[in-house]
Amino acid sequence: MEKKNEGASPADPTTPEAIGYKPLYAQVRDRLMRRLVEGEWLPGMLLPSEIELARQLNVSQGTVRKALDSMTADNLLMRRQGRGTYVAEPEESRILFQFFRLSPDQGTPSFPDSRVLSTGHAKPTPTETEALRLEKGDRVFRIERIRSLSDQPILIETITLPARRFPDFDHLTIIPNNLYRLYSERWGITIASAEERLKAIAASARDAAKLGCDTGEPLLLISRVARDLENRPVELRWSRCITREIHYAVNLR
Amino acid sequence: MEKKNEGASPADPTTPEAIGYKPLYAQVRDRLMRRLVEGEWLPGMLLPSEIELARQLNVSQGTVRKALDSMTADNLLMRRQGRGTYVAEPEESRILFQFFRLSPDQGTPSFPDSRVLSTGHAKPTPTETEALRLEKGDRVFRIERIRSLSDQPILIETITLPARRFPDFDHLTIIPNNLYRLYSERWGITIASAEERLKAIAASARDAAKLGCDTGEPLLLISRVARDLENRPVELRWSRCITREIHYAVNLR
DNA sequence: CAGTGGTCTAGACCACCTG
DNA sequence: AGGTGGTCTAGACCACTGG
Fold first, then answer.
1. pLDDT tens readout for residues A2-23
2. Which end of chain A has fewer CB atoms within 10 angstroms, the N or the C?
3. Which of A53-57, B7-11, B16-20, B122-126 shows the lowest per-residue confidence on average (mean pLDDT)?
4. For position B98, which CATH number holds?
5. What confidence tier does B21 reach under pLDDT thresholds 50, 70, 90?
6. Are B210 and B109 in the same domain?
7. Do residue A201 and residue B218 have CB atoms under 8 angstroms apart?
8. Residue A44 is part of which domain span?
9. B7 CB-contact burial (10 Å; exposed 0-12 / middle 13-18 / buried 19+)
10. What is the mean pLDDT of residues B152-170?
11. Per-residue pLDDT tens for A134-174?
12. Which residues of the protein are close to the nucleic strand D, CB under 7 angstroms?
């Protein structure tokens, strides 16, 4: 009531002095994001209660709530009435809903199986260098795999990772189906968002052989750049998909 | 303070008597939606202020705000600090951002031109009947047109409308480029959401001739069902797009 | 039962727009 | 100057969860 945003935060870029004004709840969000990025709260962990966070940050419960709600809307947190606020986990059902937009024309969506075709280090292509914002001399790790739905091959994908951010990737004995959980558990990298670009292309002879379709058959090309909590590009994925009995679903609001 | 949700709303499905509990702000949203649907507030019009709405509905300003914020998030309203709350209009820049996901690989997105190839009444196909939830005997109106970006044809699309909801469509002398504004201005139909399904297909001989590409060239097929404020399907659109220098963009969060 | 998030209210001040 | 939406606070009660 008597508070006026005077000296509330330690580092104080608060007061509407110049152009750079940020509402208090956005500053709270930024500070919570930093604690998340620095690994103070790991996926699956319970956060302090709203009241406790409000006390820590010296703001009201309502302001903390607005910050937490915004992070929940971005799928970074999960809130359960009566239980508390948890850090979101990259489990399959959530990934399926959030990052996998392919559904069978009839029936319900499900998570595809994967079979790795090849892996290895390489010098990045110019496209990869630009998409992943690599620096001179950086190397990449590539994975090629086929994914199937009920034993039908539906897509072949090439995944490119910056070697610098995934040390010892080649020491892995097996590469799991759910890569985003692997990134999280082994390197502490959380995939928070992604941009996809879709095109129709003709199947190359090589892809056609692997997918068991005709050369030249129309395929849906999905180019994905996935980003971490700090919005840095982390993964480039290039999927070529047979869409005879499958479609890519988008909701426009 | 002394209020306890007792007899607040005229028709009162409120009290957590059985299973059907709805928070007050959701009830407020429903009532505002009904006034919107019934045409009390037309696109571009200024709504009453939060304080006035709170007085009318006998709830607090904060509850009205939560309802208005939710409708704003769905692109139904537009709020401007110091001005007021307006009903969203289907102008090109908004439609471009909300419903048109095709961008040039290089350069900034823009709204394509249209050239109508044919129009006419028809008996609906089974696919159209299902997608538009038509009843027995209902007829449809179809439009076929080519759309171009900087004089390059990029897609050919077939649009199907239920004749019952668009009376006298065939009396139109010209069919404008921005159809959603036409639906709004002439029939009071607001397109509020849409679902799209994407596939890669081979260009038919007919489409190839119209688009000036080769038969069999891979095209991106976009099947859209557009819905009104009450979530009823209103338009079926079937676009076949050349994606040589264009892509369909999706953001996943 | 105590503790959590979810809803609702009331009131203050701020940033922005218009006249 | 006066009105609008945007932010922030404080406090009450509700619904849900777990011990």
1. 333 333 333 333 333 345 689 9
2. N
3. B7-11
4. 3.40.1410.10
5. confident
6. yes
7. yes
8. 24-87
9. exposed
10. 97
11. 999 999 999 999 999 999 999 999 999 999 999 999 999 99
12. A 1, 3, 5, 8, 23-26, 59-63, 66, 80-83; B 4, 16, 21, 47, 49-52, 62, 65, 69, 79-85
Length of chain B: 253
What's the average model confidence in pLDDT over B22-42?
Answer: 96
**Scanning the structure block, which residue is given the tokens 């040390």?**
A167
Using alpha carbons, list the distances in angstroms from residue B125 to A2, A244, B136, B196: 68, 21, 12, 19
Mean pLDDT in chain B? 92
Among A52, A87, A122, the domain boundary falls at A87
Q: Is the pLDDT of residue A60 over 80?
A: yes
Banded model confidence at residue B14, pLDDT cuts 50, 70, 90: very low
Residues of A in contact with B198 (CB under 8 A): 198, 220, 243, 247-250
Other CB atoms within 10 A of residue A223 CB: 16
Tell me what the mean pLDDT of segment B111-135 comes to. 97
Residue given tokens 């290089």 in the structure block: B106
Q: Token digits for A71?
A: 């992070």
B98, B193, B198: residue with CB nearest A248 = B198
Cβ–Cβ contact A70 with B under 8 A: no
Within 13 Å, how many C-alpha atoms sit on residue B103's CB side? Answer: 13
For residue A46, give the CATH number of its domain: 1.10.10.10
A197, A170, A202, A199: which is closest to A186 by C-alpha? Answer: A170
CA dihedral A224, A208, A108, B230 (to 10 degrees): 60
CA B134 to CA B226: how far, in whole Å? 14
Q: Across all residues in chain A, what is the average pLDDT?
A: 92
3-state secondary structure of A95: helix
Answer yes or no: do A37 and A108 share one domain. Answer: no
Asked which of B69, B87, B105 is the last residue of a domain, the reply is B87
Length of chain A, please? 253
3-class DSSP assignment, residue A129: helix
